Automatic annotation (TrEMBL):
Record-given protein name: glutathione-specific gamma-glutamylcyclotransferase
UniProt keyword Lyase present: yes
GO biological process, one term: glutathione catabolic process
Domain of life assignment: Eukaryota
GO cellular component, one term: cytoplasm
């Protein structure tokens, strides 16, 4: 990632889907296999405080998720869609700074400097003319051995922890637009519960 021979590619699976980084040369919608998208990472700054951390979305290996969260299994039909952005190499340093300022992890060697993310080289699958293709991209993945990994939480508790529901609404809608035929059951169930909470709050006021 970021070497002379390799393009600087960012795979957006959260807010980067609807708010792309700057200096994008090209972008490709794609999906991952063997990973789950969950709000399973604490945020002590951008979406919470040290005393009351919020939750941010991250990627976790399906095998890791199954071991830690048997009560919240990842349905086989669920697919993690996102967008792979190829960044103009002239602006790689600027984009790395931007990702750090907006709460996205920055790589230093192989260790992430924000809340326990790591970097792995993943296969990002795309479909062109009905044919599945593979592109090798770099992607940030939450690991269960980092101090900010939360694991599975009851949907009700998680919904109460997500501070800004608009963020989740935009993510859910963006995922639907990327792949109308696919399904992300956890994301959509959480969206439904947040809408119920918002509706209740508006009635109370």
């Amino acid at each position: 990632m970021g070497s002379i021979n390799a393009p600087f590619v960012v795979f957006g699976y959260g807010s980067l889907i609807f708010k792309p980084p700057p200096h994008v040369q090209s972008q490709t919608s794609g999906f991952l296999k063997g990973y789950v998208r969950r709000f399973a990472q604490e945020s002590h700054d951008h979406r919470g405080t040290p005393e009351n951390p919020g939750r941010v979305v991250t990627l976790i290996h399906k095998e890791d998720w199954d071991r830690f969260s048997q009560s919240d299994a990842f349905p086989d039909e669920d697919i993690v869609w996102g967008i792979a952005y190829t960044i103009d190499p002239e602006y790689e340093a600027e984009v790395r700074d931007y990702l750090g300022e907006t709460g996205h992890p920055i790589i230093r060697g192989n260790i992430m400097d924000q809340d326990g993310y790591t970097m792995e080289t993943l296969h990002v699958y795309t479909i062109e003319n009905g044919i599945e293709k593979i592109a090798i991209q770099d992607c940030y993945v939450g690991r269960p051995d980092n101090p900010s990994f939360i694991g599975s939480e009851p949907l009700e508790d998680l919904a109460q922890r997500i501070w800004v529901s608009e963020y989740l609404y935009r993510l859910a809608e963006s995922v639907r637009q990327l792949a109308p035929a696919s399904y992300d059951s956890h994301l959509f169930a959480l969206e439904g519960r947040l809408r119920e909470l918002d509706s209740t709050a508006s009635v109370d006021h």
